[in-house]
């Protein structure tokens, strides 16, 4: 495999950044499913967050402090899920031609074309599947408390997608949030095997990938 050297770090060819956009499918419908407007996660999932909070407080009669604690716990849990998915699923090491194709569709396309504005947030066709998986996982493990925990988890996901879009689309702000830009862009342009956190770098410090 051809490898390039950038910032003294070897970057595999299939992760090397380019300008423009890739065509992933010849079928127009499938190709359209891979492209997403950046506001889509907010439009699709924010009503879910509001409904589940309302349901928790008014139908299940959770105390505000309990619902609030579960909600914050959900956000925090998302940051860990974000890190683990990015590190171990999105960056799994392919060893076959089929593996490379799968890795490219999952995440490699974003590394090759990091400025493609229509592929900076997760397509609903994919995120809805993950939402169902996590909902049932939490329902099995914490039962009724899922109704207050899951909206926090989803809110964390919305923040993640919005942050990811902002980092790639806008100039870094002149405040402390600027560090998020620096952290994530190092993942793209310096070391794709490090800096996996997007909405927060905390887990990179915990697991030593910063």
UniProtKB/TrEMBL annotation:
The keyword Lipid biosynthesis applies. It is found in: Endoplasmic reticulum membrane. Its main location: endoplasmic reticulum. Coiled coil: none annotated. It holds the Pfam family FA_hydroxylase. Residues 72-209 form the Fatty acid hydroxylase domain. The chain crosses the membrane at residues 39-58, 64-85, 120-138, 144-167. It is a multi-pass membrane protein. Its cofactor is Zn(2+). GO terms for biological process: fatty acid biosynthetic process. One of its GO terms (molecular function) is fatty acid 2-hydroxylase activity. It comes from the Bacteria. Keywords: Endoplasmic reticulum, Fatty acid biosynthesis, Fatty acid metabolism, Lipid biosynthesis, Lipid metabolism, Membrane, Metal-binding, Oxidoreductase, Transmembrane, Transmembrane helix, Zinc. GO terms for cellular component: membrane. PANTHER family: FATTY ACID 2-HYDROXYLASE (PTHR12863:SF1), FATTY ACID HYDROXYLASE (PTHR12863). This is Fatty acid hydroxylase superfamily protein. It comes from Candidatus Kryptonium thompsonii.
